[in-house]
Amino acid sequence: MSKPSPEVYERGKGMDAHNEVMRGIRAQKDAQYDPHEPTRVWIDEDNTPGGVYQSLTIILNTGGCRWARAGGCTMCGYVAESVEGGSVTHEALMDQIDVCLDHERENADEESGLVKIYTSGSFLDEREVGAETRRAIAETFGDRERIVVESLPDFVEREKLADFTEQGLDTDVAIGLETATDRVRHDCVNKYFDFEEFVAASEAADEAGAGVKAYLLMKPPFLSESEAIEDMKSSVRRCAEHAHTVSMNPTNVQRYTMVDELYFRDGYRPPWLWSVAEVLEDTADADAIVVSDPVGHGSDRGPHNCGDCDDRVQKAIKDFDLRQDPSVFSEVDCECEATWEAVVERETAYSLPLAR
């Protein structure tokens, strides 16, 4: 990526100290990426208000999240995979869509009813994805049933979402809220907006005939395991008032981030999978679909338990995602659960992590 620097729009947001550190860390990355190839694409299965769908997930390779170029979130390393120069042409972005459609034809028996489009930034930010490209993508997937596009609250506008809703698509906006607690979002995640701005964006989406999928972050840096659990329980319930789906993402250690720097200094441990299960089980009665997809589960850099039970707990989490039945967690156990309970009881933010 080109040298990280804040644009006018991003200046004065977030914590200056965090942004300065993050810019220095991100500047170490010098890999180059092809603007005609997506960052990632895969086929999966997702639970939505319309039922369970086969999903085509696309991460477009853009010029990168503008907030990340200013410094950005303490845990997010996706901007390090962005294209040099800060922008990608309409033609190149549509080439990426073609690559994704080819992938779907080769790896699925049928077209996916659900399409999810991310940019590791904001799809609705026209500095990342221009209006021409947005409309062309809406037309390309106009025959599908449901679409999800990712955006920060700033860019959620009725006119932009109309490109999708007017195609007859059930449309959702995925918003990376991370937590309903403003202080945690500002000081631990270094995300600049307040919860009320998320609420306003959800209202704008509703006026456009679209829904909201809220993304939360389980255990950002500087929180103990118990603090992270309680923050997620509270955040899930508050988000359920404004979003039909809440997706809780356990933090994984990505390169070129502040979390990465803390991890190598024994100042951070990703959350336990038992913690993820605890939150899902406790909030199963929330008025929303609550899901989690622990990326890198079982690895030192991803959410993990002892190593022996990680796959079994991950399978239970996936089962819960699709069926929303908390009883699945009573079917898995392991001796390490006692260690996790001791960590939750005794670990404090000023001396974490108690156990790697």
Descriptive overview:
- With 356 residues, the protein is an alpha/beta fold.
- The protein has twelve helices and eight strands.
- It has helices at residues 16-26, 66-70, 90-107, 131-140, 158-165, 182-189, 195-207, 225-239, 258-263, 273-282, 310-323, 336-346, and strands spanning 40-48, 51-59, 114-118, 146-150, 170-178, 211-218, 245-250, 289-292.
- The longest helix has 18 residues, at 90-107.
Structure in a nutshell:
The protein has 356 residues and is an alpha/beta fold.
Low-confidence stretches: none
How much strand content do the residues show? Answer: 15-25%
Distance between the termini: 32 Å
Secondary structure tally: strands: 8
What is the strand arrangement across the widest sheet?
Answer: 1-2-3-4-5-6-7-8
Determine the fraction of residues in helical runs and give it as a percent range.
25-40%
What is the helix/strand order? HEEHHEHEHEHHEHEHHEHH
Q: How many strands, what sense, and barrel or not for the largest sheet?
A: 8 strands, mixed
Classification by helices and strands: alpha/beta
The rough form would be described as globular
Radius of gyration: 20 Å
Mean pLDDT across the residues is 91
With helices defined by DSSP (H or I, 4 residues minimum), what is the helix count? 12
